[in-house]
Amino acid sequence: MKLPGKTVWITGASSGIGEALASEYVKRGARVILSSPEVEKLNALSDSFNAFRSGSSLVVPLDLERGGDIPGIVAKTIKQAGRIDILINGAGISQRSLVIETPLEVDRKIFEINYFGAVALTKSLLPHMISNGGGTVAVISSIVGKFGFPMRSAYSASKHALHGFFETVRAELKRENIKVTIICPGRVRTNISVNAITKDGKSYGIMDRGQLKGIPPEKCARKIIRAIAGKRKEVYAGSTELLMVFIKRYFPRIFYLLSSKIKHA
Q1: For residue 117, what are the contacts with CB-CB under 8 A and spacing of at least 6?
Q2: Which of 25, 115, 155, 236 is catalytic?
Q3: Tens-place pLDDT, residues 55-91
Q4: Residue spans per domain, the chain
Q5: Are 185 and 140 in contact (CB under 8 A)?
């Protein structure tokens, strides 16, 4: 994939994997559209990119909980950007609460951001990509999109849902030259656990020890970019925790034994 002249729209671009992706794409000559609700962070990031190379970034504030706003934002962004070649649905929110204590409104909030927001944005942008002869849609899922995990019931469920939707997009739009890459990170050193929500809908505020030992987001971003360029259908990024996917697939009895012993923290 030749990146100079390409435009990449990244949600969740104000921090973590999304920010690292934006930085790596700019270094490779692409123009990036930066989206998240954190406008000040996006503006600062955009200023640094544009100082590196004039016109290399564009800020589009986007709150995925406000799904009704998305079609209008997409139409405006297409007019502003001209052409969008790659969409990376990177925004998401995690969870730290038990099933039995989590009210349904918390589950709905997580799904609104992680699933419905990504679906709404993708559906709004696909006609533009198809009219241009094709494009690439990527979505950041998780290894817990492959199995359930304690304290992350709605988060895991929302990631499972992404797989079902985007695998269908791939199958239906193959003839339209729409490529789909699903990314399944394990532990990446970001603030996802700090920003996770609890049963009360408040921020968890704690960096998980496992998260702290995760791979750097820059390493994850480089692997994602290679996977998208290589038209990979699915890619995993992380360390030894990725073995859980293998164990679940080939040794399910061992997986269920291990998962039942995980501390609820």
Answers
A1: 11, 64, 65, 67, 70, 89, 91
A2: 155
A3: 999 999 999 999 999 999 999 999 999 999 999 999 9
A4: 7-240
A5: yes
Which CATH code fits 7-240?
3.40.50.720
- CA dist., res. 262 & res. 144, Å (int): 14
Residue 74 sits at φ, ψ, to 5 deg, of: -65, -45
> Which pLDDT tens digit goes with each residue over 192-244?
999 999 999 999 999 998 888 999 999 999 999 999 999 999 999 999 999 99
Question: To 10 degrees, the CA torsion angle through 242, 244, 245, 248?
Answer: 170
User: Is-catalytic flag, 155?
Assistant: yes
Average confidence (pLDDT) over 93-117: 97
